[in-house]
Amino acid sequence: xxxxxxxxxxPSQREAVQRLAPQPRTVxxxxxxxxxxxxxxxxxxxxxxxLDMPRLVERLALTGSVLEEVLGFLRKDGRIEVLGQxxxxxxxxGLTERGRSSARDALARSGYIGAAPYPVSSYRSLLKLQTxxxxxxxxxxxxxxxxxxxxxxxxLDQLGAAMNSGRAVMIYxxxxxxxxxxSSRLIGLFAEAVWVxxxxxxxxxxxxxxxxxxxxxxxxxxQQKNLMLNQGIDRRLLCCxxxxxxxxxxLSMEQLDIRYDAFSRQYQAPLQLKASNGLFIxxxxxxxxxxxxxxxxxxxxxxxxxRDFLNLGGGRxxxxxxxLILVFSTNLNPLELADEAFLRRIGYKLHFDYLTPDQYxxxxxxxCDRLGIAYDEALLGFVLQGLYEVEGMPLVPCHPRDLLGxxxxxxxxxxxxxxxxxxxxxWAWRNYFVQLxxxx
Length: 440
Description:
Domain AAA+ ATPase: 165-352
Number of helices: 20
Region (Disordered): 1-24
Organism: Pseudomonas benzenivorans
Keywords: DNA-binding
Structural class: alpha/beta
Distance between the termini: 58 Å
Protein name: AAA family ATPase
CATH superfamily of the largest domain: P-loop containing nucleotide triphosphate hydrolases
Strand order of the largest sheet: 4-7-8-12-11
């Protein structure tokens, strides 16, 4: 699975999505009501003033044939008018006074102005098709994905088995031991792309899903080669890498449900929905403003039933597949966060510990190569024996990067060059760690 390159990572996935979500050619095939699409077109025209067909196609991510049907309906209703052609070719459309009033009414109900949303019923099928749990991770996959990472074979085996289980994972251990870094790289085991809708329609509510801060777009070569606008995969879906969402101490319960912004009159998807078909890492577990038990209890039903119930307000709820790998990462003892009954619901509890001297040496070498400086065994010996052993400091994976970087900072400041000296590393050490001798 891991060996597939980005350029050909998703041909089979694309074919499956093509069958499930072909380009709609009629309003009926969009899964949306003609009145809904009519209001959306009016909002776009209200926002832009005048638009021709190519711009409407671009803005709404729908085919010309669908938009022609909607525009015909709006013209009959007296809400739009034809304002001539662009460059003698494309017709331009604008709102009538009736249309402007209709657009204002539509905006009062929903402030969403974007691509046509994807129906929630079709979205459920899409999530199941693109499930992150359909693969089988092998030992060779794990070794390939983490070839450049210093990690024990026992931990690789634990992580690999956890990825195959489809269950939640808790990673715990001291700060700086690489928990977040390692867990975020797990997404590399799943090379194929996924298709993410701009937004989904839940009855009349439009919930935005695509987030450029979460979803990294890929160029869909199959779509690029297809010059026919009425063919290919539904353009309301964007080809993206599988998402990774990492949230820490700032996480609140409100972020785990659909949020309605009364000012913009728009709905925003919760974090776990943006992470669908991907990885959701709750970092610094136990540091959030909400009680750990309250936060953990939020996941009992999704973890056990693989479905999530989201609240849209006004007594409205929506059920969606809970398809992601949920990772809890904490510096605390897991038994301080939850009782054993809850921890049993989390399939794997993986303990990250401090490094051995050999592991630390391998990371030090890697950082020297990355920074373009010569590896000096004697200098590393000074760091290990003269600093770590003397001060009883544990070996942590992030230290080589930070200490070498700070030593180079000082060297550049002093307009120096050449190999780093023990004095420069000791200076970095004194500035990196909190010094307690000031108390005495």
